[in-house]
Design goal:
650 residues; four-stranded antiparallel sheet; four-stranded parallel sheet; 18% strand; 20 helices; alpha+beta
């Protein structure tokens, strides 16, 4: 190329370069281009004094739309691509716009980004941005496919469809991958996916199925799935494949951070967050995962030099892996599904690359089937009882509907989930020094009363007998510290049959009472009698009185009135009812026995009695020795009260 000797040619050539158009950059460029030294000052003066041929704002496309998101951050929407103005992606796009106009420089880049931010801030438009899925205005579900066409799936009761240019706007992050959906998908594909996870038993398969199937339901709490077990049990693969199915990403797993802002950013940017090899959670980490499960927010200062805030709000599906449970905090376990995995036998082991390839092939088919079942589940929701749901009620509500849609019996999910809750409760209590020692202290005792300091001394004595280090930071050092820990565990203790009560004794001294409770105690004091219903049961209640509830894994404490449904079966844990509930004849409990009643099975009355049932209907009078066929719930009342006993056969 011939050397440049004309000032106008030098100016034009330099302005077309990609480098910043500053004085320092010009002189370095001029030297590299062998511009004569006598010309360089003249050329730079011409560049510096050259009038602008157009405004910077003309570099922005006329079809670019600027608005604010729900947190007040500036956003640009161009050709269906949505970018935050202060993001790296928008910065790169702005460079391309400026370069296309021959106006790229570092100063111009910063000025144009500031200008775009001002346009968005001055506009009246505010649009919410969502990650992966959102509930539409009509209650429909929208799922972002993260493809180049910016398509989304719209899910309504009974059907789903792919929609171009959907009304909801979605925020995407660089790590997110496309959700591909096959033309066909079947139950066999879903079962193969479950088989690849090596889940331990049927309950775990049902629970994981429900968590997977409801992951795309927006606006409901997400369970924290904790996969734990020995080395070689496939914990990491379980979480990686679940994430690949629901929220495909270049980052299969993440690491836990002790920094609150970093944790918040990870949770914000990932719809399914997998924390691998989580050994022991700090209280801060546990609290943040709990907030992510149920839907909370976090804010931090944007810069130390200003007062602007960056706001994160999210509800995420969280998965943890570890050889042991990484956390025993009651709040965490309340939201958890515990999946214990066993070591994979040598005869069943396959190469990771082979499994990954098969999962890549299988995922689009499994997604197709999951979408079909989710649309079907939305039609089943009205059939699922809404009262007396277990913890994580919304998840349980949708989880029952999804598993029914897949063909599981009504109540199978509730039964599995309640078994998991029992495991959670035991882990919450026995996973702490205080829980383990109080449980040991109450062995063989019905009641104990004393001060917090006296109880702490008793627990320290038991700790010494069990070679437990009382100098550990987790062991309470004072009575008030013990009292706070008991407050945290009180609900879990009660579910295990130990009630913690507080009172003031003589002189205002605070007393703690530990008391063993039975299902009869619960009835007499307005609680519920514990019972179990089989998978084939569907026990639905009307209003119900005090002491007239049966807790079952089907409906977790649904008040049992007249039994309705097919093949009604209930297992009644016997306990006395109050005089008020039985019409004045308290009777005697059948101690330490569980009685199974079938729908249509008769009872034999042991004494003369009558009472008003849950539905307001008067039952009786009955005479001693009389046989009667009662609704299953009223038969339960009579047996619990010791008024009758079941007869063999119908």
């Amino acid at each position: 190329m011939a050397p440049l000797t004309n000032v106008s040619e030098v100016v034009a050539r330099f302005l077309k370069t990609r480098q910043p158009h500053g004085e320092k950059e010009f002189y370095a460029w001029a030297e590299s281009e062998k511009i004569p030294a006598v010309m360089q000052d003249t050329c730079w003066k011409a560049i510096a004094e050259q009038p602008e041929k157009f405004e910077l704002k003309d570099c922005l496309p006329t079809d670019a739309e600027f608005f604010l998101d729900q947190f007040g951050a500036a956003v640009c929407r161009w050709k269906n691509q949505i970018r935050h103005v202060r993001s790296t992606e928008f910065r790169r796009q702005t460079i391309r716009w400026l370069d296309g106009a021959g106006k790229y420089s570092q100063n111009n880049l910063s000025a144009l980004i500031d200008f775009a931010d001002a346009i968005a801030s001055l506009s009246d438009a505010v649009h919410e941005l969502h990650v992966r899925c959102v509930e539409g205005k009509d209650g429909d579900i929208w799922l972002d496919l993260c493809n180049d066409r910016w398509e989304a799936v719209r899910i309504t009761p009974g059907k789903w469809e792919v929609v171009a240019n959907p009304p909801p706007l979605f925020r995407r992050y660089p790590h997110m991958r496309e959700i591909k959906i096959a033309e066909e998908g079947a139950r066999e594909d879903f079962d193969e996916y479950l088989a690849m996870l090596h889940l331990k038993g049927e309950n775990d398969r049902i629970l994981h199925t429900a968590a997977t199937g409801t992951a795309w339901v927006p606006g409901i709490p997400k369970p924290i799935e904790i996969a734990h077990g020995r080395k070689g049990s496939g914990k990491t693969s379980l979480c990686e494949y679940t994430r690949q199915l629901i929220d495909p990403s270049e980052l299969a797993t993440l690491s836990l951070s002790r920094d609150e802002a970093q944790m918040a950013q990870k949770l914000m940017h990932h719809y399914v967050t997998v924390f691998d090899n989580a050994h022991e959670l700090t209280q801060l980490q546990s609290d943040m995962l709990c907030r992510a499960s149920t839907g909370e927010g976090f804010s931090k200062r944007q810069l130390y030099s200003d007062e602007g805030d960056v706001i994160f709000r999210y509800r995420r599906m969280v998965m943890l892996t570890g050889l042991n449970l990484p956390g025993s905090q009651p709040d965490l376990l309340d939201r958890a599904i515990l999946l214990e995995l066993e070591r994979i036998p040598k005869t069943e082991r396959r190469r990771k690359a082979q499994l990954d390839k098969r999962m890549e092939e299988l995922a689009p088919r499994v997604r197709r089937y999951a979408l079909d079942m989710l649309a079907k589940a939305l039609t089943i929701l009205p059939e699922v009882p809404e009262k007396n749901l277990p913890r994580m009620a919304d998840f349980a509500y949708y989880g029952e509907a999804f598993t029914r849609a897949m063909g599981y019996p009504a109540g199978a999910f509730f039964e599995a989930y309640n078994a998991n809750i029992e495991a959670q409760t035991e882990e919450a209590v026995m996973g702490s020094f205080v829980g383990e020692l109080v449980a040991a202290f109450m062995e063989g005792r019905k009641r104990w009363e004393g001060s917090a300091e006296e109880l702490l001394a008793e627990l320290a004595r038991i700790a010494g007998e069990r070679s437990i280090n009382t100098k550990d930071n987790a062991f309470p050092k004072r009575g008030n510290s013990l009292s706070r820990k008991l407050n945290i565990l009180a609900a879990d203790f009660e579910e295990l049959g130990i009630r913690i009560e507080r009172s003031k004794g003589g002189g205002g001294a605070r007393k703690i009472t530990l008391r063993r409770i039975t299902s009869g105690d619960a009835c007499e004091e307005g609680g519920t009698a514990t019972g179990i219903a089989t998978k084939s049961a569907e026990v639905r209640g009307d209003s119900g009185d005090l002491g007239d509830s049966l807790q079952s894994p089907l409906f977790s404490g649904e008040t049992a009135g007249d039994a309705k449904g097919v093949q009604n079966t209930a297992t009644i844990a016997t306990s006395p009812l109050t005089d008020e509930n039985t019409g004045g004849d308290g009777g005697a409990a059948i101690p330490n026995t569980d009685t199974t009643m079938q729908s249509g099975q008769k009872v034999l009355f042991l004494k003369e009695c009558e009472w008003v049932g849950a539905s307001g209907q008067t039952h009786g009078p009955f005479k001693a020795g009389q046989e009667a066929e009662l609704p299953i719930a009223e038969a339960a009342r009579a047996i619990k009260n010791g008024l009758a006993k079941p007869m063999d056969g119908a």
